[in-house]
Design a protein that fits this description.
four-stranded antiparallel beta sheet; 13 helices; globular
């Protein structure tokens, strides 16, 4: 019987609750941590494949969500990959699905997806911890929050050369990946305030210093203002795309063919659905698709977006003016010099939206990242700072 620890975990609905240890439980002993990421994602982004990098992470999340038949599982999207927690009894099936995903990501997009699975008992043996919380974003989406030194430890284990925790290419594929529900039908989303900022903040304190976290979060929120002042999405700047290049990627994922009749039919269906969606939203027609009123589609995307998250580091996609971004950077630089934190940013003029939706339930999540690399490029800045710290 699969443990329902995450489903039964009490959710919270404000950013301040992220730092309250009472809102978390430790990963159970009979669960494992799945890590996926695109190998050499920085180089792929620099050659213009930043959308494909996002897709690679989204497809892995969609495949596992379809296997479990719901999204009420703890997972987080990181731009070029996902962190997903699974019960150990599902490990062999998950390996099969993710190996299939890995092969298809390479076949469709020429990207190499690294996939690793680390049992929580490995963390226990190393005295590393991962605690899980549940942030209620909407009635249809709870976002997992991960804290503890075990998150980075698992990533390091998986990324080691010839790691024993990665899935080999020859692992037998007994269950194929199902990507139904994966969509990418929105144009790049221009920043309402001029700049789209990917921000990653990593605290340096090894203690669970709640007052320290509270102080930093409070100061960041004071600089940013109300959520509508910095949210990267708005109903005004969300526009359905008609780009063949963009919609073709979804058609490839749903048909699992790069060309041919099945892909043609999938693309035709997508074009028809996007055309109808535009008409319904324009004239506010009372038409539903599954659980969704199409006239309110933009509102759903905004409400169920993951533009703020916490996986041991605070990650945000923000729409800011240049002046406000400078104020935020000045504050963070001061805290960085004080040895409180290290931060990385990436600046662009737009955001990307990668969507996962379950037609058999009302669950949905819309991954937000900055264009031209977003989180992956902000993480690169962060790594460079840590390298300088170690060298100095």
């Amino acid at each position: 019987m699969i443990s329902k620890f995450y489903e039964e975990l009490r959710s919270f609905n404000d950013l301040d609750s992220v730092i309250n240890p009472l809102n978390y439980i430790e990963v159970p002993n009979n669960w494992s941590v799945v890590i996926t990421d695109v190998i050499n994602s920085t180089e792929a982004i620099e050659t213009g494949k930043y959308k494909d990098v996002n897709i690679a992470g989204g497809l892995a999340a969609m495949a596992l969500s379809n296997y479990f038949g719901k999204m009420e599982f703890p997972f987080l999207f990181g731009g070029d990959g996902i962190t997903f927690l699974i019960p150990n009894e599902s490990t062999e099936d998950v390996k099969s699905i993710l190996n299939d995903t890995k092969k298809k990501v390479y076949h469709f997009f020429k990207l190499r997806l690294r996939v690793g699975i680390v049992p929580s008992t490995v963390l226990k043996e190393a005295n590393k911890k991962i605690y899980i919380g549940k942030w209620k974003i909407t009635d249809h989406y709870n976002q997992a929050i991960l804290i503890g030194d075990g998150v980075e430890y698992v990533e390091d284990l998986v990324k080691k050369v010839n790691s024993e925790y990665t899935i080999n290419d020859d692992f037998p594929i007994k269950i194929e990946a199902n990507f139904q529900g994966f969509t990418c039908r929105w144009k790049d989303i221009p920043s309402p305030n001029g700049e789209t900022i990917n921000l990653i903040v990593k605290f340096l304190s090894h203690k669970n210093d709640r007052s320290l976290y509270q102080s930093v979060l409070t100061n960041i929120e004071m600089i940013l203002g109300e959520i509508n002042d910095y949210h990267p999405l708005s109903e005004t700047n969300l526009k359905v795309t008609s780009s063949y290049q963009s919609l073709s990627k979804e058609a490839i994922a749903s048909s699992q063919q790069k060309s041919g009749f099945k892909k043609f039919l999938a693309l035709l269906k997508i074009y028809l659905e996007t055309f109808v969606t535009r008409i319904v939203m324009l004239f506010r027609l009372p038409l539903k698709a599954h659980f969704y009123e199409l006239k309110n589609l933009k509102k759903y995307q905004i409400e169920a977006s993951d533009f703020r998250k916490f996986d041991g580091s605070l990650k945000m996609v923000l729409s800011l003016t240049q002046e406000k971004r400078t104020s935020l950077e000045n504050y963070l630089e001061t805290e960085e010099k004080n040895g409180i934190l290290v931060f990385g940013t990436h600046i662009s003029d737009s955001a990307l939206l990668t969507c996962l939706m379950h037609s058999e339930s009302s669950s949905e999540v819309h991954f937000v990242d900055g264009s031209n690399g977003g989180y992956a490029m902000a993480a690169k800045v962060l790594k460079q700072k840590f390298a300088r710290m170690q060298a100095g």
